[in-house]
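Section 3.1 - Work completed
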Amino acid sequence: MTNAEIITLNKYLYKIPEAMTLLSLSRSVIYEQIRAGRLRFVKQGRATLVPASAIRDYVALLEQEAEVHYGESA
């Protein structure tokens, strides 16, 4: 990804491939996180969309989990 491609959350809803890019996760992991209730989504017709707020919340969740495990030996 070049500097020109740095992604900002400037949309309200993202298609699954866009969410994959934003979160650097595979399609299967995205859907796994959705099924687990860790990543919120909305449906518009047949389309599955991830709100920008859900992406921010998911990243915050990952950061929070990292802090909990910080300092534990791997």
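Second construct:
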Amino acid sequence: MENPAPLLPPEVLEREDLRRALDEHDFAAALSLIKKWGGLSQNKIAAVCGLTPGKVSNVIAGHHRITSVAVIRRIADGLRIPGAFLGLAARPWEKEPQGSMSLTEDCRPRGEVPWCPGATLDLADHLTRSDLVMTRRAATRALSAAAVTGTVLFESLEGWWHPARADERPRRPGRLGARDLDDLETTARTFRAWDHRYGGGLRRKAVLGQLNEVASALDERQSAAVERRLYGVMSQLAGTAATMAWDSGLAGRAQEYYLLALRSAHAASDSAFGANVLAGMARQMIYAGRPQDALELVRLAQDGVRDTAGPRMQALLRTREAWALAAMSRIAAFRRATAQATEALAGASDFEEPYWIAYFDEAELAGVTGGRLLDLARQDPRQHAETASEAIRRALELRGQEAGRSHALDWIGLAECRFLIGDITGAAEGARYAVDAAARTRSRRVRDQLAQLYPYTVGRDAPGPVREARDGIRDLLAAS
């Protein structure tokens, strides 16, 4: 079959406003410009891109965001937009003036990114390259992009249940050996430690660059053992990129990296890390006000590692379950899940687990539990504020400043507990320590939590220590 002629005249593709919209994946603006200057109706755009006219109408109206790489590829192929304009690799029709597209049947787009190696690497390449060259305007737009929720999210996870596919793509030979893999795994471990201590920020670019390099190595034919380890490194780097993006306020982009991490763990046959990724996605859903979605993600993770999870992983998943239940005001169920997490963690010392779950210890359990009790205390201080304070204080006793972001969040939570109890002296002291700890991180999430503490310090009759805490919070937030 011959390649169809370009649908858009060169002068349309050369328009600066269209190029900018395509680069930023602003499809509302891009499709509007294509409709206006390319002379294409919404029905025509829908037909060539494999979309419904209603979906095109919703996209143009700004009611629907296109985030699926598979759909973006269909738009590029349907409208004959060069891949580079959208942050994609050169499309097959750019290289082959005659003949059909070279997508295999197994990896042909079906509205969502298929769970096959080629699609996973395309996703990694697109995400990292678009992030590394993100403009200030695009970064501002990305901050407002929400995570996908509900049915759309869970449909995108269906591939998690099926065995990983072999990579049958023709590729040039690769030469990575065991020492190279050791170095890459060490780097991934270092980046993960950075995230736990400092949060998102400038270090995110380093993670993305390394992630892009790993994707390039996987685009070569390595030995089976090397390839599996490479996918394991990719999953850990993508997981770190996800938490860093989320910590920087980029909810939509964080979810995309979580999905990449899950796909990579799936390709590496690492169900444990996949469950850890799903736990991260569940936490994001809770912050987005979707506790039922969070609970579904936790159950999906628990089903995947039911016979293999170690004590720390079991405890982590139970605390995520408890978190969702607390957000749904299911107090008895929250307490039961928390007790199950405590019971599971008691056996952790006798069980060897991966390094990336080692952080989940008694201090982490106390901190997370205290945070959830604080959520409940905001609704009923008399019932929950004192127990929340005790749990958070326990976390502070068990982990010091080296915990970085968690240390700062503990102090913020403790200060709020004391305000809720009415202990103004303790609250002012906690707020002062919170400001000092927050100043040592680059975490947007820490600063957001600190901003929620600020209203407690406002008032003409506030005593001197509280006014000092207020000034410290205001100065730190103003400098961020």
